Amino acid sequence: MVSVHSISVRAADTAEALRALEREAASLGISPDFLCVFYDETHDDELIHAFLAARFPGVPVLGGTSCGGVMSEKGVGGDGSIGLFVIEDREGEFGVGVAELGDDAAGAAERALHQALERAGCPGELPELIWIYQAPGREEQVIAGLCRVVGERCPIIGGSAADNQIAGSARRWRQMAPDGPMHDGVVVGVLFPSGGVSVAFQGGCEPAGPHGVVTKVANVGGVPAQGSGRAILAIDGQPAADVYNRWLGGRIGHCQAGDNITNETVMFPLGIDVGKIGGVAQYLVVSPQKILDNGAFSTFANLAEGTRVFSMRGDRTRLVERAGKVASAAVAALPDGPASFAGGLVVYCAGCRMAVGDEMGRVSAAIRDSFGGMPFVGCFTFGEQGRILGRNVHGNQMISAIAFGR
User: Which end of the chain is more exposed for a tag (fewer CB within 10 A), N or C?
Assistant: First the structure.
């Protein structure tokens, strides 16, 4: 029998927030077998780790910083909030591994996965779910490393740690592992829950009309890329930023090299057509980041040369409603049906959170209603990892939901 609990508290002072967490945990009488922790970047990670290690010794834990705190079935926690997502499942198996990304992010992810499987007591076995939290920047390499071990045989779901203002500082994008916090790592959880699990992963935008083919890329910093990178130099053989600016009707024409264009383009990202479900095209969304020299721009995800990219369009209403639809899709896919749903975990893009603004309460309410009021915790990330049409991928401005069965 699986039990899921959520705890969300809010306080500017970390010690005060942890006292509130202790009161909530004591009132619930929880005894976790697995837990996730997400928190506003202003909190003291070392204090959070010390609390969890003392309060729940030996329990596999992972998580990290989340833009503007967390949300749950109780609403949006807001600045200064901390959230715990707790699974009690004596018949399940859970483990967490960790590695510094270093110069070989794929190798680091592979090592962390093997460590997680060993700690779960399931070496060589295929998990029901791999859950990851990592530093932004090398998400595709992390997925590639994990897939060297498991292929595409199980879903890889997770997020990239975030700060509150897209400051671009790795030391503000922090991860929490069983041995403590880190700022350039990947934390990998393997889950073998006894009640079953299902996932859903979708974006909240639709094609706006214009599209073109990426014809030249590089790695950010001008380093040559092996056919795929995050510096988009040309689309249809023309300077990429000029093409993109035309698609947006001149929206970023005033921007110069070095300017961050995240806020200007959050409702107008790029999309990649990855196939159809029920005759409906599915798009992986990629967010532009900065204007670079010579008419190029960078993105928060890799694009390969030869990829056709679509100009996408979003709005507040769509971003609010999509969260509830993704949650509903995850519940509907549970092996034993929606009646077996115990609780869920949600990853919601931090850029979408900022765009939705004061309507975020509607987002948490939509998820709560789709989850039938059952416990959930949601984090806000600078990159989302999930599964589309049987493939594990990294994208931006995406929403994922994980539903756990009883």
Answer: N
186 in the same domain as 98: yes
CA-to-CA distance for 144 and 139, rounded, in angstroms?
Answer: 9
In this structure, the answer to whether residues 191 and 253 fall within a common structural domain is no
Q: Are 82 and 158 in contact (CB under 8 A)?
A: no
Domain boundary at 313, 337, 368, which?
Answer: 313
pLDDT of residue 315: 87
Residues 224 and 86 in one domain: no
> What distance, in Å, lies between the first and last C-alpha atoms of the chain?
6
What pTM was computed for the model? 0.94
194 and 245 assigned to the same domain: no
**What range defines the domain where residue 262 resides?**
206-313
- Across-strand partners of 404? 197, 343
The answer to whether residues 257 and 141 belong to one domain is no
* Residue 171: per-residue pLDDT: 72
Query: What count of other Cβ atoms lies within 10 Å of the Cβ of residue 278?
Result: 5
For 29, 304, 341, the CA distances from 362, given in Å and listed in that order, are 30, 36, 22
pLDDT in tens, 358-399: 999 999 999 999 999 999 999 999 999 999 999 999 999 999
Question: Would you say 230 and 300 are in contact if contact means Cβ atoms under 8 Å apart?
Answer: yes
- The confidence score (pLDDT) of residue 252 equals 96
Question: How many structural domains comprise the chain?
Answer: 2
Last residue of a domain, one of 263, 286, 313: 313
Write down the pLDDT at residue 109.
Answer: 98
Question: In Å, how far are 48, 65, 120 from 53, measured between CA atoms?
Answer: 9, 18, 18
pLDDT confidence of residue 169: 60
325 and 295 belong to one structural domain: no
Asked if 285 and 190 sit in the same domain, the reply is no
Under a CB-based contact definition with an 8 Å cutoff, are residues 160 and 348 in contact?
no
Which positions of the chain have pLDDT values less than 70?
167-170, 221-225
Q: How far is CA 163 from the centre of its chain?
A: 13
Task: Give the pLDDT confidence of 148-180 residue by residue, as tens digits.
Answer: 999 999 999 999 999 998 765 667 899 999 999
Asked whether the beta carbons of 130 and 385 are under 8 A apart, the reply is no
